[in-house]
Amino acid sequence: MNVLFVDDDQEILFLYRDIFQFAFPETIIAFATDGEKALNLCRDLQLSLIIVDLIMPHMDGATFIKKLRSGQTKNRSTPVVLVSGLVPEANDAALQAQGVNKIQKPLDIAQLIELCSNLTGCKPASN
Question: Cα separation of 125 and 9, whole Å?
C-alpha cells in the first residue's frame, strides 16, 4: 500500500507514520505539509490512499480534494480520508459524492485503521 499523509503538523505526520508502520508494515509512506505539495506528489506517485487534514496553509484540504478530483492525475479516484475537528455534518453528502471519507479529531486509531483497511483492501497486521 502506498499512502500520502498531508498535514502541516509534523507531529501528526509522525503519528500517522508510526500507526501505519505498526498496522500495515509493508506501507510505503509519503508526506506533504500542504495541499500544493500534495498535488505535486499526486502527479508523480501512484497512491492507494490519501489522508489529508482540513486546515493547512497555502492550500487547505477541501481545495486539495477539489483539485485532485478535477485534475488530470493518476490519483484522481484514489480514496481520500479527510481528518479534522471542524468538518460540519452538512458537508457529509458533498464529501461522499467526491469519494471522501472523514474522521473527526481527536483520532480514534482503531477507527482509522479499520477505515483504511476497508478502503484499500489491505488487512492490518496481527501484532
Answer: 27
Rama region for 31: left / alpha / beta (φ>0; ψ in -120 to 50; rest): beta
Say yes or no to pLDDT of 90 above 50: no
pLDDT value of residue 98: 72
Q: pTM to 2 decimals?
A: 0.91
| Single-letter amino acid, residue 34 | D
Residue labelled with grid coordinates 497555502: 58
